[in-house]
Amino acid sequence: MKPNIETFIGCESAYGDADMVIFGAPFDSTTSYRPGARFGSSAMRHESFGLETYSPYQNRDLTDYKIFDGGDLELCFGNSKTALADIENCTEHILADHKIPVLLGGEHLVTLGSVQAVYKKYPEMHILHFDAHADLRDEYLGEPLSHACVMRRCHDLLGDGRIHQFCIRSGEREEFLFAKAHTDFHPFDFTGLEPLVCALEESRTPVYLTIDLDCLDPSVFPGTGTPEAGGVSFLQLLKAIVSAGRLNIVGADVNELAPMLDASGASTAAACKVLRELLLSIGSGKERE
């Protein structure tokens, strides 16, 4: 018999052999509406065995790649700074070993921990951001470290023109004004993604891809803390992920699944499929280098 260690399906490589490392950040202490995203990463592992490792969309299999699943971090609930520091330290360790970190949330604030680590290694990096929400508030109820502020904190690091936002359909007026002045802003859908990918692909710019699953329409993905009507379909998101795989992806995350908010399990199943396609897209992109 073997020890009962649950990994995402097809991600059983040893750490030393792996090219990609997935790890979970079960943190949702700043969730502003419906909590539960802290259970997203463990639910994705558990339910992933309803998937095949093979993707007919990309004609690739997770077993074609060396992927290690490091499980969930043990994070301090209620202390965003400590949690972010732990995520940053883990990401730094993965990067130092010349592997690609893929973070599973958790609420979207967890992205900031990984971005801080990736930025240290790749100060010229860009962020590709898929989300229903702009996440550009300077503070939320007086708190600057909130999932509603995560892209604003990333902008504090990167500055203007290096955050590319798609599918955004919710935010304060001030967030939309800030985006138009300071980010590469594409509301509602993926219009403009292909020319951006062509430009970043040619320059081989290091790119961090963050996918807030509420970019999907709630008819597809109701199991999230802040659902917003008018989102994209799964196939639209899949096409965007495959396109992004042509880029020099140096880090990525998938976040904001709150599995208990969709008792049918359909949202978790969709999240698992998004992660599978993301891993395959990153892997295929590295093959072309």
What gap, in angstroms, lies between the N and C termini?
40 Å
**Proportion of helical residues:** 25-40%
* Uncertain spans: none
What would the CATH topology be?
Arginase, Chain A
Give the number of domains. 1
The CATH class name reads: Alpha Beta
Mean pLDDT: 96
| Coarse structural class | alpha/beta
List keywords for this structure.
two-stranded antiparallel ribbon; 8-stranded parallel sheet; globular; alpha/beta; single chain; Arginase, Chain A
Question: Overview of this structure, please?
Answer:
The protein is α/β, with parallel strands linked by helices. The chain has a single domain, classed as Ureohydrolase domain (Arginase, Chain A, 3-Layer(aba) Sandwich), CATH 3.40.800.10. The protein has 8 helices and 10 strands. An 8-stranded parallel beta sheet has the order 4-1-5-10-9-6-7-8, sandwiched between helices. A two-stranded antiparallel ribbon has the order 2-3. Helix 1 packs across helix 8 and helix 2 runs parallel beside helix 3. The longest helix is centred in the C-terminal third of the chain and has 22 residues. It starts with 19 loop residues before the first strand and ends with a helix. The mean pLDDT is 96.
Compact description:
The protein has eight helices and ten strands.
SSE blueprint and pairings:
Blueprint: E1 20-25, H1 40-47, E2 54-55, E3 60-61, E4 67-72, H2 80-96, E5 100-105, H3 110-121, E6 126-130, H4 150-158, E7 163-168, H5 173-182, E8 184-187, H6 193-203, E9 206-212, H7 234-244, E10 248-255, H8 266-287
Parallel strand pairs: 1-4, 1-5, 5-10, 6-7, 6-9, 7-8, 9-10
Antiparallel strand pairs: 2-3
Helix pairs in contact: 1-8, 2-3, 3-4, 7-8
